[in-house]
Each structure stands twice: as C-alpha cells, then as structure tokens.
Amino acid sequence: MTAWVQVGLKPTVLDPQGQAIHAALRKLGFGAVAEVRQAKVFRVQVAAGADPAEARLQVERAAREVLANPVIEEFSIRWEE
Amino acid sequence: MTAWVQVGLKPTVLDPQGQAIHAALRKLGFGAVAEVRQAKVFRVQVAAGADPAEARLQVERAAREVLANPVIEEFSIRWEE
User: Fold this and answer.
1) Which residues of B touch A (CB under 8 A)?
2) B61: distance to nearest CA of chain A, Å?
3) Which backbone phi and psi does B6 adopt, to 5 degrees?
4) pLDDT per position as a tens digit, A23-64
5) ipTM associated with this complex
6) Contact between A75 and B64 (Cβ < 8 Å)
7) Would you call B4 exposed, middle or buried from its count of C-beta atoms within 10 A (0-12, 13-18, 19+)?
8) Interface contact A42-B8, CB threshold 8 A
9) CB A36 within 8 A of CB B41
10) Domains in chain B and their CATH numbers?
C-alpha cells in the first residue's frame, strides 16, 4: 500500500520559487506558460505487515503534523494499492 | 488548461532526503511507514490565449529540459482542463 502525499502552499500564499521558475521559462521562450507553482510530493510506502486502517491514520497524521506546515501549506493524500 | 508535472529521482537513485524523513517519522512513532521518497510537483498554468497543442509541446519540453535533470530524475505530466 502506497500513499502519495502532496504538500503545497495555500493558494493565498506567495510562491517565490514558482515565480522564479516561471520567469526563467519565459526568458527561455516558453511563452505559453502563465503561472508556475511548486509543491512537494512524498511517496510513503506502508510496511508489509501493517494494519491498513492503522496505516491510513498514521499517514494522515504524519501529513498533518510532520510533512505539512498547516500555517502556510495544505495537503492531499492519494492511495494506491 | 493546467499541467501537473511531477519530477522525482529515478528508482535506482538514492534519496537521502526521503530517508531522513522516514527516520524522523520512525522516531516519532509512525511505525507503519516502510519507506519515504520525496519528489517535486510543478503546477503549470497555460496562458488563456495559448494554442493547446503548442502549449502541450512547450510544457513537455520544459519538463524534459528545465524542470527535470534527466541524468538522475524522471518526470510525468498529468493534464487538467
């Protein structure tokens, strides 16, 4: 069982890294790009013997308490068997 | 039109950042986690007036030539209308 935890800045928070990438792309001639925002993804592999329900709780708690900073970031979790 | 470009280390490349996060999670009691690997995601917004076919080409080229380092990284692109 694998969780993909995506952590990105809240829409209201400025993303200077994304803006820098966007500016670089424009300079390189990628004119079709209007905006770039960068986020992180964690691929979290669950231990083979772990209880699935408990694993889900742990990954959700890890995302909320460790992987994301709730003041400026939001996260989403996608599960794969 | 929006592209989600995910850039991650190739499976054969060590991910010390992911390993550090995994070690921290284990120490914090998240015992169900067996492995963590970290990747980047870029949300690329296409300009309103851009030609869709040209925009797809540009985003693919940007992913290959700018956003990912083909020596150690691989990328995938998911499109959203």
Assistant:
1) 6, 8, 18, 21, 24-25, 28, 30-48, 50-51, 54-55, 58-59, 61-62, 66-67
2) 9
3) -100, 125
4) 999 999 999 999 999 999 999 999 999 999 999 999 999 999
5) 0.90
6) no
7) middle
8) no
9) no
10) 2-80 (3.30.1280.10)
